[in-house]
Amino acid sequence: LPIIAFDKVSKTYSTGTKAITNLSLKINKGEFVFIVGSSGSGKSTLIKLLLKEIEPSEGNIFVNGKELTRLRRSQIPKHRRGIGVVFQDFRLLKDRNVFENVAFAQRVIQEPIRSIKRKVPSILAEVGLSEKMQVLPKQLSGGEQQRVALARALVNNPVILLADEPTGNLDPKNSWEIMNLLEEVNKKGTTVVIVTHNREIVDAMQKRVITMNKGVLISDETKGGYSYEG
Ligand code: ADP
Ligand code: ADP
Question: Smallest Cα–Cα separation from 64: which of 78, 53, 48?
């Protein structure tokens, strides 16, 4: 069952740049997918389309059975909550401790306090940060900060976990820790989509690899490697 489907999607920016051309792809529930391609190949545009931060110029995008251009404004927050996002630069709240950074996501959806007190420690335990709940982000290593970001992305149980260059600021050891966590998350049923330049990881993991070049999908391999030299 596709949880994400792009049907003949194109995106031309107001500048005239054609960032995505006639893209069709399906990602099924429970899949683990890498999206690779050199800078400017349309990966960020694809993510923004998926989050409905921008609109396609042509074609249709379906997420969880809903066609995004048909979503009402009032349905957009719910749509975005279904997609947990992790960024290269972590984007944590600098003046809040680890617990509060993760709890914040729950407060936004008005989860009851007792549920927050149960879920936040539980998700932080899953990413191995039980001992760091009262610590500020700056007191953590890059790998630990990314694990906080991952916990925050997961705490509201999204159906899709989207990671935009999640290992971009990490050394190889921490990069592998994050990838192993993402694989665990996927094993529990969450669809995981990772945009990355990390050739070593993509080649080693033997997952589905979608390669973009200049806005065009140039390959889609079930057990792929980072084939495109960009
Ligand atoms: P990434 O997510 O791969 O780090 P960015 O979103 O920072 O990429 O930008 C990717 C490419 O898109 C870059 O070449 C950048 O110059 C270009 N770009 C980003 N925003 C704009 C914009 N508003 N106008 C024109 N080009 C842009
Ligand atoms: P990637 O994330 O793979 O680096 P992008 O999706 O950011 O690629 O960019 C694809 C193309 O669209 C690039 O040529 C980029 O310069 C252009 N682009 C990206 N964002 C904008 C924007 N906001 N306005 C105009 N052009 C953009």
Answer: 78
Could you tell me the pTM of the whole model? 0.89
Reported ipTM = 0.77
Quick: pLDDT tens for 5-63. Answer: 999 999 999 999 999 999 999 999 999 999 999 999 999 999 999 999 999 999 999 99
Q: How many CB atoms lie within 10 A of CB 7?
A: 16
The protein residue with its alpha carbon nearest to ligand 1, atom 18, reads: 40
CB 190 within 8 A of CB 161: yes
Percent of the chain with pLDDT over 90: 95
The CA distance from 50 to 48, in Å, is 5
Give residue 43 CA to ligand 1 midpoint distance, Å. Answer: 10
Flag whether pLDDT at 230 surpasses 60: no
Give, for ligand 2, the residue of 9, 36, 45 to mutate: max count of ligand atoms closer than 8 Å to Cβ. 45
Token code pair at residue 93: 């709240």
Give the amino acid at 173.
K
Query: How do 208-213 and 32-36 pair as beta strands?
Result: parallel
Q: Which of 41, 212, 218 to mutate to test the pocket of ligand 2 (most atoms within 8 A of CB)?
A: 41
**Strand-strand pairing, 191-195 and 32-36:** parallel
- Among 13, 43, 39, 12, which Cα is nearest to 25's? 43
